[in-house]
Every structure is written in C-alpha cells, then in structure tokens.
Write a structure and sequence with these properties.
With 195 residues, the protein is α/β, with parallel strands linked by helices. Helices cover 34% and strands 18% of the residues.
C-alpha cells in the first residue's frame, strides 16, 4: 500500500457539480493505506444544491474516512503547528480558493489548511475546477504552479465550446498526482485534451 502510515488531508470546496465525481476518490487513498482527514469549506458544508444535499455529502465523507470533518478556520489552524498532515489535497478546488491560496489569504478553513500545510513544506495537491480557469483565475494557477510544494492534478477544458474558460481536473488522477508529489515531482502531462 503506497500511502500506508501517511495522514492526508482531503479538502472539498464549492464546485458542487464535481463533488460526487471527487468524493469517491477518497476511497482510493484509503485503499492504499492513508489515514484521510476530511476538510469541507464552510459553504460546501452548509449548502444544499441541485447536485446534492450537504448532509448526504457529509455523511458519505465521514463514512469513507472514519474521521470528523474540519469545517472552520479554528479547526484547520493546528495543522501547521502540530504538523498533522503529510500532504493536503484540495479537490475540487474553486477559483475562489485558488485566489486565496495564491494571495496568502486564510479566511476559510480550506485556505487556512493550505497555508498551514505549506508552512511545514508538505505537498499541496490541487484539483482545479473553475469556470474561469483560462480567464480571471489563470494568473492564480500560473502563480501556484510556480510555488514550491504545490502540485496540480492534470486538468483541461471540460466544455470548450460552451464554456471556453472552464477548467476541470481529471479526478481519477488524484492518487497518482499525490504519489508523485510526495516525491517532490509534478505528474505529467499536466494538460489533458478532452476528445
């Protein structure tokens, strides 16, 4: 088991349309031996949408991980001084969260978890999911790609015709990206082409 004896944070943010496609991949990490500490953005934890009820996502995440969910800045802050995580995954990671991390803002539990994790020079794996990835969020993606210990799950345009600026990570590559990141390497190719 390649993640045996590792504690991995798994944070989800408000890209509600990709939550179901993402959460199932927490099981991949568990299957490979990781102790997964779940983190949910405040909005994701408290919002029902047409893509599902918050309570259902919460129950599923707790069932898969066997751990309580971190849902506040106060709850995420100890990740730094206590060096709780060996790595942190943010999947899906919205444009809003990307901007906070790129600018060093810590006004949400996921942004605080990212800052706390990077403080310890542990890998941060980002699975982007944003409608403005090739627009307003492009500069934040570029900035984070050039930041030490930040790694991206391969991503591409999800609907180039109707949403030309939209980018979504290939969530099936989360575990592989983490494996590379733990060795200080970015999985390649980072850009994927939808056919």
């Amino acid at each position: 088991m390649k993640f045996e004896n590792l504690t991995v944070g798994f944070a989800v943010t408000g890209s509600f349309c990709t939550l179901k496609k993402t959460i199932c991949h927490i099981e991949d990490l568990k299957r490979e031996g990781a102790n997964v500490i779940p983190i949910m953005s405040e909005i994701t934890y408290n919002t029902d949408t047409r893509f599902g009820k918050a309570a259902d996502f919460i129950a599923e995440i707790k069932k898969i991980t066997g751990n309580e969910i971190i849902t506040s800045v106060k709850g995420a802050e100890p990740i730094g001084p206590k060096n709780i995580l060996d790595a942190l995954i943010i999947a899906p990671c919205t444009g809003n969260t990307l901007s906070k991390i790129a600018l060093g803002m810590t006004d949400s539990c996921v942004a605080m978890a990212a800052k706390a994790n990077l403080r310890n020079e542990n890998p941060l794996v980002i699975a982007v999911s944003t409608n403005d990835g090739l627009g307003a969020s492009a500069k934040n993606i570029a900035s984070l790609m050039n930041t030490k210990n930040v790694f991206f799950v391969p991503f591409g345009q999800d609907d180039a015709e109707k949403k030309p600026n939209s980018l979504v990570a290939d969530m099936t590559k989360i575990a592989d990206t983490l494996d590379f990141a733990l060795n200080g390497k970015q999985i390649q190719p980072i850009l994927r082409i939808n056919k």
